[in-house]
Amino acid sequence: MSINKLREILKASQNIIFFGGAGVSTESGIPDFRSENGLYKASNGEGYPPETILSHSFYAAHTKDFYRFYKEKMIYQEAKPSAGHLALVKLEAMGKLKAVITQNIDGLHQVAGSKKVYELHGSVHRNHCTKCHQFYDLDFVMANEGVPKCTHCGGTIKPDVVLYEEGLDDETINGAVAAIMEADALIIGGTSLVVQPAASLIHYFRGKHLVLINKSSTPYDNKADLVIHEAIGKILSEAVDF
Ligand code: ZN
Q: What is the mean pLDDT of residues 19-29?
């Protein structure tokens, strides 16, 4: 029933934007770090919650511990795109989906084949020397014991991942906002919409159909034209079958 309605919306829309959260990647076996319970023990013997470790001040003060957590808990190089990722590629190839906006940093939309992707929180696949801005890929970062250093100048390499206390990239957020403002359908999936800027982005949508697909309810369920409380991959792959 809901699938049919979603399919009708997809058929009728010509400028669809997908906005996705951690739920899109959990189906690829990448856990949401926010659901990690307990504290992570740093080398000073103290335990820290993931949100603290993934903050700019922690990165600056305890770079080695940051990287230990980051490499152990945030990187899943074996992960493959899920059914949800692939359905979005198909929808883009049809000319209907104009962009994917994601909070995920794993780069799986691009691996799947999506062309237009706004990565609000950056990507683990882009890393730069903080001194000379030389680019490094994820393999280089992972191959380094401890803190990865620039082979040109010895500077510390930092992932292009937006940490807590850091602002989003202006160009990325402006592009995402512009895409949402032009959309006739906005599909939001795999996010409970409690993490900013997810919630605030919805306010830019002026199109016809707002669709929310998430296992649990969100604060915006009553504002959507269609709400589906199921796994995003199953729903998208069934709906994008026309
Ligand atoms: Zn350098």
A: 94
Q: How far apart are CA 191 and CA 82, in angstroms?
A: 16
Which residue's structure tokens are 């000379």? 132
Give me the sign of the Cα torsion angle 227, 178, 116, 11: positive
Residue tagged active-site, from 121, 133, 152, 229 = 121
Lay out the sheet containing 135-136: strands in order across: 135-136, 122-129, 157-161
User: Looking at the chain, which runs of residues are DSSP E strands?
Assistant: 16-20, 40-41, 47-48, 97-102, 117-119, 122-129, 135-136, 157-161, 185-189, 209-213, 226-228
Q: Is the pTM of this model over 0.85?
A: yes
Neighbours of 4 (CB within 10 A): 10
Å from CA of 79 to ligand 1 middle: 29
Residue with tokens 């709400």: 227
Residue 123 CA, ligand 1 centroid: distance in Å: 19
Which residue ranges form the domains of the chain, and what is each CATH number?
Answer: 2-30+81-121+168-239 (3.40.50.1220), 39-76+132-161 (3.30.1600)
Nearest-angstrom CA–CA distance, 88 and 238: 12
The yes-or-no answer on residue 121 being catalytic is yes
Evaluate if residue 36 carries a pLDDT over 90.
no
